[in-house]
Specification:
The protein is α/β, with parallel strands linked by helices. It has two domains: about 160 residues; about 90 residues, no CATH class. The protein contains 13 helices and five strands. It has a five-stranded mixed β-sheet, with helices on both faces. β2 and β3 form a beta hairpin. α2 crosses α12, α6 packs antiparallel against α9 and α8 runs antiparallel to α9. The radius of gyration is 23 Å and the shape is globular. This is ISKra4 family transposase. It comes from Candidatus Jidaibacter acanthamoebae.
């Protein structure tokens, strides 16, 4: 507010800024087409006749949680927002975002972002995500030439947490000659090389050995067993999306959504979940996310001026 008062020869007020920002965001929403389950059109014969596509697109999808507002309720909890970013060496980046369980056109939103990036139906693209149901469904049926990869960062993060829990546990007291940390390292390197079968086999043995703590629900040992049980299910559910990360890394291909982290910070963190945090309604947060996604696109600045007329 102080900056606006200094720059412009007019007085500004919070309600006016709120009204204008909301008006622009709603205008952007109204320009979005109808949602579809599938955006793939034509057949392989038609795709082969198309011009040679540009270099492959890389799309990373991640999420975060925003402090909810429900009247004067100070314990309203949190709700989830999804943010994505597409990369292409010669065309810069594009962003999109939405609030889960509020937005009714999430797949259309992603599709339109890819179209603005210059996507062709016969273009190769790589999607990286944490493997959750929401983001997995979001990226399906957008392109016949897409590959879907489980984000390596989320795998290593889970293993790191399990190793921290395993520290200090003495399993020899119950007759288990087992170093959980070493076993988790072996599992990690199996996954790094794309050997999911071997990783699941080792995880299965590990959870079987620790099942003796099933009845001790308040113990650290039980917590560790529970985490390994959940990790087994996580890897099993995403088995088809785990490549040879080592080979991809060697060829300079993306294996992580780390490049999306800055976008998460730009779009949903400031004044939402970090310092200066505010409480948001789902509608308010969703509209603000739309504005933050487009202010990084120079071609949108003139359009925004037009919407205020």
């Amino acid at each position: 507010m102080k900056l606006l008062d200094e720059v412009f020869p007019m007085q500004t007020n919070i309600s006016s800024i709120f009204y204008k920002a909301q008006k622009v965001a709603k205008r952007l929403e109204s320009e979005l087409g109808e949602e579809q389950h599938m955006y793939i059109e034509g057949c392989p014969r038609d795709w082969e006749k198309l011009p040679k596509p540009d270099i492959p697109l890389t799309i990373g999808i991640d999420g975060g949680y925003i402090h909810a507002r429900e009247g004067n309720n100070r314990k309203a909890g949190w709700f989830e927002a999804i943010v994505g970013k597409s990369l292409q060496d010669d065309r810069g980046t594009k962003r999109f975002g939405f609030v889960v369980n509020y937005d009714t056109k999430p797949k259309r939103r992603l599709y339109e972002m890819l179209k603005k990036q210059g996507m062709q139906i016969n273009q190769e693209m790589t999607f990286l995500s944490d493997g959750g149901d929401v983001v997995r469904e979001l990226q399906m049926y957008l392109s016949p030439y897409s590959e879907h990869i489980l984000d390596w960062f989320h795998i290593t993060m889970r293993i790191t947490v399990m190793k921290q829990v395993a520290k200090g546990l003495s399993l020899e007291d119950v007759g288990l000659k087992l170093n959980v940390g070493d076993e988790l390292d072996r599992i990690k390197w199996c996954l790094w090389s794309g050997n999911v079968f071997k990783a699941l086999k080792k995880l299965d043995f590990l959870r079987f050995d620790l099942e003796t703590f099933y009845e001790k629900k308040k113990s650290k040992e039980y917590k560790l067993w529970k985490m390994i049980e959940e990790f087994y299910g996580y890897i099993e559910a995403n088995e088809a999306y785990i490549p040879d990360y080592g080979a991809r890394y060697a060829y300079g291909e993306s294996i992580s959504t780390a490049f999306v982290e800055s976008t998460v910070n730009e779009v949903i963190s400031k004044r939402m979940v970090k310092k200066q945090q505010m409480r948001w309604s789902k509608e308010g947060a969703h509209l603000m996310i739309q504005l933050r996604c487009v202010i990084h696109i120079p071609s949108y600045h003139w359009n925004i001026r037009l919407t205020l007329d």
